[in-house]
Design brief:
Number of helices: 9
Number of domains: 2
Helix content: 25-40%
Order of helices and strands: HEEHEEHEEEEEEHEHEHEHEHH
CATH topology of the largest domain: Fructose-1,6-Bisphosphatase, Chain A, domain 1
Number of strands: 14
Strand order of the largest sheet: 3-4-5-6-7-8-9
Distance between the termini: 47 Å
Largest sheet: 7 strands, mixed
Structural class: alpha+beta
Mean pLDDT: 88
CATH architecture of the largest domain: 2-Layer Sandwich
CATH superfamily of the largest domain: Fructose-1,6-Bisphosphatase, subunit A, domain 1
Strand content: 25-35%
CATH class of the largest domain: Alpha Beta
């Protein structure tokens, strides 16, 4: 385990302890499309714990973090931190949330960690592969699309186009897959895909701290995605294997891509 990954694991666990014991206030958070969102005192506390740990060991590195330093650039050695992904779940006592971070060099990830405090599950990724509590994980074997479990992110708080496309997925793709899951935390979407608990995940990407730690984890576990959709439309269609991806591109994407062509 690299020094960077080892630091992430220890820092995320320390932040997790603070989050589990957190009793701080919850505050409203502005969004572009006016949809309700929140930030908690526990977010800021957890973020400070992680940033302090990075600063102590790597004082010259760049840090991008959701609450304290969101405008930082991904240049050189950069750490990207999301102190609580799934804050709405956390503040309502729903144990579907996580703490995540990824280490990049010139925008390219080389280590990431996602910690679920309520379940005490630590997911890690590096060039050596993807792991859950130290045990190697892989994506699920091929399952026909109509037998797959698909996870979908919460409706976008940044883009009306994304929101419309998400609505089309839920309405028009209901018979193409076996089940939909909306977990309310990107870290869980990616970790569940990486560990074979789900078969595919569709996300409309926005800020790096939301998706980059989990995207790297899923890739290291064997997940694949359509690079053209990701590059041209910020649409991440990520699947357990190429066969599922091919079926999703044929059976799902045409039903919602029209939202981007108006």
């Amino acid at each position: 385990m690299s020094d960077e990954l080892s630091l992430m694991v220890s820092a995320l666990k320390a932040a997790g302890r603070a989050v589990l014991s957190g009793t701080g206030s919850v505050h409203d958070k502005d969004t572009v499309v006016g949809v309700h969102d929140v930030v908690s005192d526990a977010d800021v506390c957890a973020e400070r714990i992680i940033i302090d740990a990075i600063r102590n060991s790597f004082p010259d590195d760049n840090i991008m973090s959701e609450e304290i330093n969101p405008e930082s650039l991904m240049e050189g050695r950069t750490w990207i931190v999301d102190p609580i992904d799934g804050t709405m779940n956390y503040t309502r006592g729903i144990p579907l949330y996580g703490i995540q971070a990824v280490f990049t060099v010139d925008g390219v990830p080389s280590a990431s960690a996602i910690y679920f405090p309520a379940q005490d599950e630590m997911f890690t990724a590096s060039p050596e592969g993807a792991f859950l509590n130290g045990e190697r994980i892989r994506t699920a074997d091929y399952t026909r699309l109509d037998k797959c479990i698909l996870s979908l992110g919460d409706f976008s708080r940044k883009s009306e186009t994304f929101r419309e496309a998400q609505g089309r997925i839920l309405c028009d793709c209901r018979d193409q897959v076996a089940r939909f899951k909306v977990l309310g935390a990107a870290c869980m979407d990616f970790a569940y895909l990486a560990s074979g608990r789900t078969d595919l995940h569709i996300r409309f990407t926005n800020k790096p701290w939301d998706f980059l730690p989990g995207m790297y984890l899923a890739e290291m576990a064997g997940a694949v995605y359509d690079e053209d959709l990701y590059r041209d439309h910020s649409i991440l269609v990520m699947c357990s294997c190429k066969e599922v991806l091919d079926e999703a591109l044929e059976g799902l994407v045409p039903k919602f891509i029209c939202s981007f062509h108006r």
